[in-house]
Amino acid sequence: MEKNAGWQWEITSKQGWFRINLKEIFQYKDLIVQFVRRDLIASYQQTILGPLWVFLQPLFTTFVYFIVFSRVAKIPTDNIPPMLFYLPGSIIWTFFSDGLTSTMFTFVQNAYIFNKVYFPRLIVPLSYVLFHSFRISIQLFLFLVVYVVFAIGGKNIHPNAYMLLIPVFIFITAAFALGLGLIVSVYTAKYRDLENMMQFLLRLFMFAAPVVYPASLIPEKYKLIFWLNPLTPVIESFRSSFFSHRPIPFFYLGVSLISALLVLLLGIILFSRKEKQIMDVI
Amino acid sequence: MDNLMIKAENISKYYRLGVLSSGTLKEDIKNWWSRKLGKQTETVVQHKNHIWALRNIHFEVSQGDVLGLIGKNGSGKSTLLKIISRITLPTGGRVRGRGRIASLLEVGTGFHSELTGRENIYLNGHIMGMKKKEIDRKFDEIVDFSGVEKFLDTPVKRYSSGMYVRLAFAVAANLDPEILIIDEVLAVGDSEFQKKCLGKMKSVSGEEGKTILFVSHNMHALRNLCNRALLLEKGQIVSSGDPENVISQYLRSGEQQFLGTDFSLKNEMPGNEYIRVQKVELIPEYDQQQQLIDIRTPLRVKFEFWYDVEEPGDLMVDVHLFNFTGEFIFDLSSGRKTYKKGLISGECLIPGHFLNDGSYYISIVFIRNATIRLFYLESCLSFDVEDYRENGSWYGKWAGIVRPDFPLLLTARDANSAR
Lengths: 282, 419
Hints:
The complex is a heterodimer of chains A (282) and B (419). Chain A has 282 residues and is mainly α.
């Protein structure tokens, strides 16, 4: 008695590799907004300085870099005032690292919700990255203020029109962090060992990118592998656009964009395929 | 009204215990390696560790049906709801259906304690799949239903647990899905509100023609709400159809609880150098052929333990009773007394007409000289007390922690003096 062939949904054990329902994610866009809002409100609740921390974090980090790497270790900064040199590097790095660490714990942190209600799981990592994108936007504004102060103070710095590429820089970093985070999240859910390992790898990875030193410091034979790190062209291009001390590395920037997109695609595919199986192991 | 809304065919769910949930990279690499080498022994071990949470489940639900799922804990009810709610995948089989599903597997999923009631209505609504416009439209209705309008702009962490539940259910009840899936959420909240919820469910299925899948241990609610029921046992449907028949079959199946263990056979008595518990059991003193603990049943708790303390001093044993939310119901103490080394047995009786219906667990604590805790045997017994009512059409949860039966007398006085 098959009365209605008009079934609207079907649940089976099979899950294709490319079953990514972008339309569904779009339907849940209000939820993304709500998650970002929630994180924004909750993250500075019950702190005395509140949202001011968005500014204080990069300033403190920069100050530490300044003391350790510039004053103590005497690592050159390409003739850029050290504060201005470290600030964008630390802002972009923090964006990457926060984006990655938050997305890679998607399952672990949200198991209690995922276990109780269905919505496209991709919503959660997306909202994390948007939340951090919101923060980096504010922090970049802070950088601009510091930059202007230095410029008025008579420092010899020249911006150029490539500054307009900043959204591209943020996008590459976001895509890379999200893609990598999605891939890792599938495995951290299953193997908790990875949590500890990732902390360590991430710290190591920071020194593989020109966060606290200029790219010019890298010896010739490591140049290729160094520049293939998607973060390298982003950070270097960012500095180039504000200090014009070096041409923008367009080739590597392009490579970086493509590889970040590939990582993102791989991440989304893997995540979508595994999201339901993971619920049985978490 | 014979429009099929859900058709489940041959659903199975298989969990591998130990292997997948081990959660360490080392073991998985080991397993992978042994599979690579074709070591048969390892695979055999793996197969011992699996369970079928569900096996060959077939059922159909038509529009307007209220289907009750009944079964012991671990019978697969929740797994089935999770599969239909798209939280976990079946291992085999398929479910097809029509219409939007809203699952209420828990009240207030995703509520954030730092956010206000108003913000949480939106957050929770969005999580359940509502759009902003829909929530805007339903907002007043939700607030009205929840009865927390005065505290809308207070963070929910300042809410009482009752308010929290009311707000959460109000969101879910106003979701407006075609299919509503509800898992034992009415166990919380006060009776007034439960009545409201059950009433809402009734009107949603009856008047609005919505389909409801409903898990509950509250037999009164099941009898009154459902027009069909499924009884699950060890992942298989053992009975389905008219709720009354299914419920009585379930009640007959008896022995639903963890009523005792004889550790002496297993040679792994819990305890330490001072105390070794050999046996713990709960013996319901049933009336006639009754097979189920209900509020009338007296319960005898018996235990035996080896006492091994040389030094002079006294021993006191306390029986702690908790309900399933962790509330401490009572602490029954044996009083202090001196014992020699050896086997000691204990016994106490929880009278009938004393506990309200619900789930309970018992822990036993062994104390020396009134202050030194020798051993705490945590939740060694657990049992459910079913409701029982002679008559009455009201099916909400009877309020209160205890359910005493001492008389409350009303006397009609003559009209003149009453004035």
